[in-house]
């Protein structure tokens, strides 16, 4: 007489396998969610340039504006803004514009631009978000990423 439940494919073994696989999937999803919550910019690894020099951030917070200089009036409107934090303006087309006391225009290589687009899931220009200094050269995203229709829609309280 054969014993029930002692075979290689018993119900208990199959349920334990599904339970184990489910726990692994849940753990993976949880940690993926938690680490996606915090997006960092390391200016020591991602080189961006202000004119011909490497940009070294000095402010506690920046309002990052990822924009397209091909849209009419964008640069002029950026220069008129007076937000709470200094603007770090990154042009999709990498044009070189003079910075002022409220706006720092930076450029980067294609690889760095693609990393920024991918890291922050930027699908539309202009997109804006705040980054906050964690330690020297390392900044953390400190707001949601807002996709706007025009630069003029940037709230002044940002």
- How does the major sheet shape up? 9 strands, mixed
Helix fraction, binned, reads: 25-40%
Q: Return the CATH class of the largest domain.
A: Alpha Beta
Rounded Rg = 23 Å
Shape by Cα distribution: elongated
Instruction: For the record, give the distance between the C-alpha atoms at the N and C termini, rounded to a whole number.
Output: 77 Å
Based on the coordinates given, report the CATH architecture of the largest domain.
3-Layer(aba) Sandwich
Structure summary, number of beta strands:
9
User: What would the average pLDDT be, to the nearest integer?
Assistant: 86
Number of helix segments?
A: 3
Strand content: 25-35%
Query: In sequence order, what are the helices and strands, one letter per element?
Result: HEEEEHEEHEEE
Supply the number of structural domains: 2
CATH topology of the largest domain: the name is: Glutaredoxin
Structural class comes to alpha+beta
| Low-confidence residue ranges | none
Describe the structure.
This protein has helices at residues 11-37, 74-80, 110-119; strands at residues 40-42, 48-50, 53-54, 61-67, 86-91, 103-108, 127-135, 138-141, 146-147. It is an alpha+beta fold. It has 2 domains: 9-38; 40-153, 3-Layer(aba) Sandwich (Glutaredoxin). Strands 1, 2, 3, 4, 5, 6, 7, 8 and 9 form a 9-stranded mixed sheet that branches. A hairpin with a 2-residue loop joins strand 7 (127-135) and strand 8. The radius of gyration is 23 Å and the shape is elongated. The mean pLDDT is 86.
């Amino acid at each position: 007489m054969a014993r029930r439940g002692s075979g290689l494919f018993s119900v208990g073994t199959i349920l334990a396998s599904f339970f184990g696989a489910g726990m692994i999937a849940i753990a993976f999803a949880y940690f993926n969610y938690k680490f996606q919550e915090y997006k960092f910019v390391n200016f020591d690894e991602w080189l961006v340039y202000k004119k011909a020099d490497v940009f070294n951030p000095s402010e506690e917070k920046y309002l990052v504006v990822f924009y397209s200089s091909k849209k009419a009036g964008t640069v002029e409107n950026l220069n008129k803004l007076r937000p709470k934090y200094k603007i770090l303006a990154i042009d999709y087309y990498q044009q070189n514009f003079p910075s002022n006391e409220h706006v720092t225009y930076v450029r980067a290589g294609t690889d760095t631009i693609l990393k920024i687009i991918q890291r922050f899931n930027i699908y539309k220009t202009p997109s804006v978000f705040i980054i906050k200094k964690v330690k020297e050269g390392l900044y953390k995203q400190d707001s949601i990423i807002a996709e706007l229709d025009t630069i003029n829609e940037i709230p002044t309280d940002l």
